[in-house]
Structure to design on (518 residues):
């Protein structure tokens, strides 16, 4: 399938590479900044553009891979109707953004449930891909591309997709933030972050096989109020600790001790 | 080495099995509840006791594997001085608990930095073991046992050990809680938790190679206030969501948007 990537960030980079590896063609990479477009275009053997009026009209699929807030503006700048399907890749932007932005062609959503960092290669095959489309023909075409990349393609509506995104913020973005809190605490005490890396991995691996609530451990679920109090006092004493981190400790411990 | 396990919970079970697999002998398993002592003793081919006066005086190492709050009481019940070393396995209980509980023999701490659930087998070799002891001879003996189980044995004082424990609460216990929040959100929207399992694993794997702060992703670090507001509204609308979960979302997002 002939595709065009609108965007050149982390998701565009990883998805672009996966598309090329699966035998698809990336005709163009668009970015407002020509150097960003060029950098990714070079990797994908495609053309760099920094003006949407230069969009190749012969593509089968145009993937919008920009930050959520920029999506309506990008749709506005597209020709009112393209022959190919236009799909955004956002968790929390509803399908209706195409209609409200005045787009009249076929469109859809192609949402990979994964976190992408520039520094780490990603295998697409286990990544769930959530699809939604303006019509059944577009859905079928999106499904074909999705299936060539991943073993877990499924359909969901915009409300469900937002729920997945919120769940992902808690389970991924916020967990990673808690890792960084742990790192700060260790470094301030002359210890290495490496000490708790096996623990982080074990916790995530446990969640692969069990319901997380059923394998909850720690002072709070044991209702060990003495240790909780001692930890809160220790966080309080450390003047370098943001008081909101103590608040997070107190809040989550309160919820867990009630279970 | 001849050991006695005082306690029969998750840590006792996993540590006991690891000791036996590494060629040590578990002479006795103590639990207040005879049936619990018996269950683990059967697995380790050792004697079950439910009265500390029946403690075998010939052991080299007595490991206290009870909840933190029960440690002083257990030490009180021990003979004032045993020939072997007595060690507790708690992150947040200082070494001085032995002195304040009136113990006069040799003692130490043997703290495995890992989470243990009954349901999942644990490989001890990558688990960091934090040691502390009343004297250098006891330290040497604890080190010998520790080294037979793990590749990562290190010395730290009670304050550092507490810092490791607090870091572990954030990175492991609280992350697991966030996984369960994600599960609740997905189930309430007719979706499976399985959808975000790859995301959870990828996030933990990323933390194995990078500093978590350097690979932070999500709406908050992108300062996408519109999405944050939309997610908070969605959490608010769902009457089944504990309002404290919205508070956690707001608090962590606030911290991350300031970065």
């Amino acid at each position: 399938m002939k595709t065009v990537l609108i965007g050149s960030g982390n998701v565009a980079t990883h998805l672009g590479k996966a598309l090329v590896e699966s035998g698809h063609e990336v005709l163009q990479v668009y970015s407002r900044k020509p150097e960003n477009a060029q950098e990714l275009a070079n990797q994908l053997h495609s053309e760099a553009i920094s003006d949407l009026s230069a969009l190749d009209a012969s593509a089968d699929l145009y993937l919008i891979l920009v930050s959520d807030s920029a999506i309506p503006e990008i749709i506005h700048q597209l020709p009112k109707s393209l022959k190919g399907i236009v799909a955004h890749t956002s968790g929390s932007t509803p399908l209706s953004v195409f209609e409200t932005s005045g787009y009249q062609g076929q469109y859809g959503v192609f949402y990979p449930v994964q976190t992408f960092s520039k520094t780490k290669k990603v295998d697409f095959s286990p990544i769930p891909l959530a699809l939604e489309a303006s019509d059944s023909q577009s859905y079928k075409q999106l499904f074909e591309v999705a299936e060539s990349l991943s073993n877990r393609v499924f359909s969901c509506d915009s409300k469900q997709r937002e729920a997945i995104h919120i769940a992902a913020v808690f389970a991924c973005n916020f967990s990673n933030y808690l890792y960084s809190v742990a790192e700060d605490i260790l470094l301030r005490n002359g210890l290495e972050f490496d000490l708790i890396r096996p623990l982080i991995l074990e916790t995530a691996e446990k969640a692969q096989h069990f319901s997380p609530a059923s394998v909850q451990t720690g002072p709070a679920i044991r209702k060990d109020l003495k240790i909780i109090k001692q930890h809160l006092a220790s966080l309080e004493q450390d003047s370098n600790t943001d008081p909101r981190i103590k608040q997070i400790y107190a809040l989550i411990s309160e919820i867990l001790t009630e279970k």
